[in-house]
Amino acid sequence: SEPLLEERTSEKPVGLWKLYLSHSLSTFGDRLWQFAVPVLFMTIWNDTLFPGALFGFVIDSLASFVFPNIGAWVDRMPRKTAIAVSVFGEAASMVAAALAFMSMICLLPDADEAEWKSPPVTWSVGICYSII
């Protein structure tokens, strides 16, 4: 009788290392950003952990509620379109967050004193914080 499964050779696809490298670099950048933003918030507001904790809470909440919808959208879209949109969206989000963080730093009052005190949260700083 014939075997149920065909025998396959164990040849690795050519260029698979590029996929691994791309994934590693993307994941490293994401993890670095997830670590750096709360640390930067704690540097600015050094008397409270609330901004860093709020950032983590919002990111985890979005992951819980939005990612299932994004997964369903990815399943419906052609793969090349989904990849192009996700790469562009990720890059645009990172640029927007970096610009918002830079704007927030520029909007904060200058520290003339020797000891740094946490600045008040104004509307402009709050808007930048929400973009980040």
List the main descriptive attributes of the protein structure presented here.
5 helices, 132 residues, mainly alpha, elongated, 70% helix
Detailed description of the structure:
This protein has 132 residues and is mainly α. It has 5 helices and no strands. The mean pLDDT is 80.
Provide the fold topology.
Blueprint: H1 16-44, H2 50-65, H3 67-76, H4 79-107, H5 123-131
Mean pLDDT: 80
Unreliably modeled segments: none
User: How would you sum up the global shape?
Assistant: elongated
What is the CA-atom radius of gyration, in angstroms? 22 Å
Structural class estimated from helices and strands: mainly alpha
Short description:
70% of the residues lie in helices and 0% in strands.
